[in-house]
Fold this sequence. Notes:
Elements: H1 10-33, H2 37-58, H3 64-88, H4 93-115, H5 126-153, H6 157-177, H7 182-205, H8 217-249
Amino acid sequence: MSNKVPEATLVFWAIKIMATTVGETGADYLAVHVGLGTALTGGMMLALLLAALTAQLRKRKYVPWIYWLTVVLVSVVGTQITDALTDGLGVSLYASTIAFSLALAVVFALWYRSERTLSIHTIVTTRRELFYWATILFTFALGTAAGDLATEALGLGFMIGVVAFGALIAVVGIGYYVGGNPVLTFWIAYILTRPLGASFGDLLSQSRAYGGLGLGTINTSVLFLSAIVVLVIFASAIEQRSMRAVTVREP
């Protein structure tokens, strides 16, 4: 099958950051404001994720709307996992950050041992794709824990969190453009976009009393979901144009 992951373009990173924001605000909205609770919200989102992931795995090529739907649901589930450990089981953010870091390292090690590459440009087998999605899940869970640790436990606040994680991503981007390892810089940036998106989502949605701008979780979620839909439609149009161009070039 052809590569199942899109190129890491500006559109890719924009959708990724907004998907992480939706994961933060959407999970909070369903669990708190709708009143479903963490357990029920987590169960519902997990069922939807499994359905989307099944559809994604059955495709033989990259299909933008299925891929990004899966990413958004992974974001919500990853957030729920961290919230369940922190709020439900009382696990400290320090412990969960360390645990998810180790889990992610193990997945990377198993992936590289099996496939000898961690590149997103070679997701052309089901086994590689399963490694990829396991990695994505742990990056979201780790990013949620690390983001909450920085903005809440360490007291940086949402605004400083956005600036700090944005600056770290900029440093990684500069490292890539001056000759850094593309696979390493990609995965570091991917992990950092999660706490950046979470901090940004909290900054927009939380009340002014807690250091936010007071837009609310539903308004923030709808805003970013709408933007994601527009960008996915744009990405789909680009994908179709590329396929037509390949078809024309083929004899």
